Amino acid sequence: MATVLQAAVREDFRGSRLSKIRQAGNIPAVVYGKAFGNKAVAVEEVAFIKTLRSQGKTGVFKLDIDGTQTDVMIYDMQYDSIKNEYLHIDFYAADMTSEMDADVPVHVIGDSKGVKDGGVLQQAVYELSVRALPADLPDGIEVDVTDLDVNDALLVKDLKSGANFEFNSEPEEVVVSILPPDEEPEEPAVDEGREPELVDGDPNAEAEKSGSDEEKQE
């Protein structure tokens, strides 16, 4: 059974109204897409968190906007860690027939031989870019390091792409390696907050405009 998240259209964009939406346990949001256009909505926070946990950031689910259902993905989330609440959500109305790019988290699994012998595991990247139809985007990429010895490494080209998706990252890019005991691992550069990107367009302009307009009114 497909996941359905209920949403209600909102037309009042004043800062005081947005505050009332959050105080009532809802999250201001916007839905946009090449064919969909742009629509301001609100979703119930508890229901959204359940959807996020079940579908992940790359999952496609139904957004029911006052009785009309649309296939969407979570494109961006604004979260206030001090107040422990979501401030704004951007939903992308996905074209289920067009491929898109997405940054997918890398999950290291297994106990490396090299680490057991005193080596140090270094994870060089925490996300990999893949291309697929929206429904075929993986939740994560599992990287098994069980057979890695000291001085061994796994590259993007060593990973098996799924039957329905391809890697966009460079084939020679190091994903994980086992350093000798006397070498300290470097801190990887983590690009936080990146979300799925479109192949045939970039919705950032609409998203940033929508987000900035609402923030100015608050």
SSE arrangement:
Blueprint: E1 4-9, H1 15-23, E2 26-33, E3 37-44, H2 45-55, E4 61-65, E5 68-80, E6 85-93, E7 100-109, H3 113-116, E8 120-123, E9 127-132, E10 141-144, E11 153-155, E12 165-167, E13 174-179, E14 197-198, H4 204-217
Parallel strand pairs: 1-4, 2-6, 7-10
Antiparallel strand pairs: 1-3, 2-3, 4-5, 5-6, 7-9, 7-14, 8-13, 9-12, 11-13
Pfam families: Ribosomal_L25p, Ribosomal_TL5_C
GO molecular function, one term: structural constituent of ribosome
Family: Belongs to the bacterial ribosomal protein bL25 family. CTC subfamily.
Search tags:
single chain, 218 residues, alpha+beta, Ribosomal Protein L25, Chain P, RNA Polymerase Alpha Subunit, Chain A, domain 2, 6-stranded mixed barrel, 4 helices, 17% helix, ribonucleoprotein
Q: Helical proportion? A: 10-25%
CATH H-level name of the largest domain... which superfamily? Answer: Ribosomal Protein L25, Chain P
Q: Kindly report the average pLDDT value.
A: 84
- The value of Rg in angstroms is 20 Å
User: What is the CATH T-level topology of the largest domain?
Assistant: Ribosomal Protein L25, Chain P
Helices and strands, in order, run as EHEEHEEEEHEEEEEEEH
Number of helices: 4
Report the count of strand segments.
14
